Amino acid sequence: MAEMIEQRALQPPVRRAFRIGLIAERLLLVAVLCALWWLLSLSAAPYVLPGPQRVWSAIGVIASHGDLWQNLAITFWRVGVGFIVAALVGLPLGIVLGANRRAGEFFEPVLPVLNTVSSAIWAIFAIIWFGISNATTIFVVFMTAMPLIITNVWQGTRAVNADFIELARVLRMPDWKIMMKIYLPTILPYFFSGARLAFGFGWRVSLVAETIGSSSGVGYRLRQAADLVRTDQVFAWTLTLVLLMAVLEMGVLSPLERHLFRWKKEAEA
Amino acid sequence: MTADDRSRAASGPCSGEDAPAISLSKINKNFPGPNGERLEVLRDIDLSVGDQAIVALLGASGAGKSTLLNIIAGIVKPDSGRVCICGAPNDELNDWCAASYMFQDERLLPWRTAIKNVEFALEAASTPKAERVRRSADALRLVGLNGFESAFPYQLSGGMRSRVALARSLVTEPKILLMDEPFSRLDAQTRGLMHRELLRIHEMKRMTVVFVTHDVEEAVLLADEVAVMSPRPGTIREIVPIAPSRPRDPIEPQVASYIRRLRGLI
Q: Looking at domain A68-260, which of 3.20.70.20, 1.10.3720.10, 3.30.460.10, 3.90.105.10 is its CATH number?
């Protein structure tokens, strides 16, 4: 059919050459930062600013007796549990608050208040309630992540297109299917960006919680290294954590988001 | 007795077996106006649409033609009067005489591919997945979109999106197709193409079609009968049968005279 020529480009918008160039650029950036770090470390005492080689060997030391992986794993587990519970609570609560106007209006002021409470305060409460235990860190992650997820999901429910609901009703679709097929896909991008934010925050506050309320985990090790003025180890812990987050972000979250939301027009390009 | 029961009792039962595809009698509908007053949108509408016919509801904006279509579809309840679909009240679900509704916009779900958008119409009833896919692929082929099953709406042109919406309306194998200014957002050339597509599919499937339009030419080119509506209150001023056989050309003298006549009526 002749008018089919009007089709738009259906090939994926990612250009290979462009991506390779991007990777080269990123590597260059890392090299520049390392060089800068090395230059600065030349004019400072090692306990103030250890150089790259010193930190590298410190990483080797903590990695060699399994210390690194053990503590990363325990911190990761705590963040994971706090985050998953926050998502399990936040997603339905956000939907309920968005679907029920009265409840939404009633509880609206609670979220900004929750968001302004510092995680250090949650950590102190957690120690009072749970003592030195896993629950302390999990609680702090949960209290930080949950309001973020609720806020985003709530926003998502407002974005649900009434025309799509009408379409489903004309097709005589039952309410629970409208929930699954219209509400959830609309909310998903909002949930995803909320969850991503919450996960990042969760990581950061988990360290705060671990420095004061734990006897294991990366946060605990960081404080220990600082107390012993092992600045090279403080750097080693920090660096591995940053690297891990970068890998998670670029290796898992970004590709997942690109796949889930491939139906969106590439507006950012 | 609720108002609903009363209106049904007053208008009697639908006529049963060999009834016309759609039959409306004494339909009245009021909407509350902006200052609390009563707006009479439809007054005493009688209309009968024969099986396999194409009928246009033609009128200026505000003539209540979309409201009338929504009443036929069962989306809007009339204040009084009787709506019968294939001889049964339209608030009863009848599988043997299903109606499909096509909106003014394409209304495709942006997160679904073309074929998944067509499948959506089959997901209300629990059609098995394999059958859903097969029938949806058939419907897309029917509207000339084979090869575009896995394209997302943003990757399709306006005409192609319109075809997906048409495929979604047809995939349920409706006996009746209701269309609310379905192609009004397309450019003139694409609209012409969609008209030919609709007529081709009507030749094959022989469903009854009722569509709303304010475009006289569209009404004359497509319809067997044009119901001309006039506003405030909305009434059917005249029902004009269009005699020439399809496909019709607007510059043909006989077709052109219908167009002139209907322009004078609205």
A: 1.10.3720.10
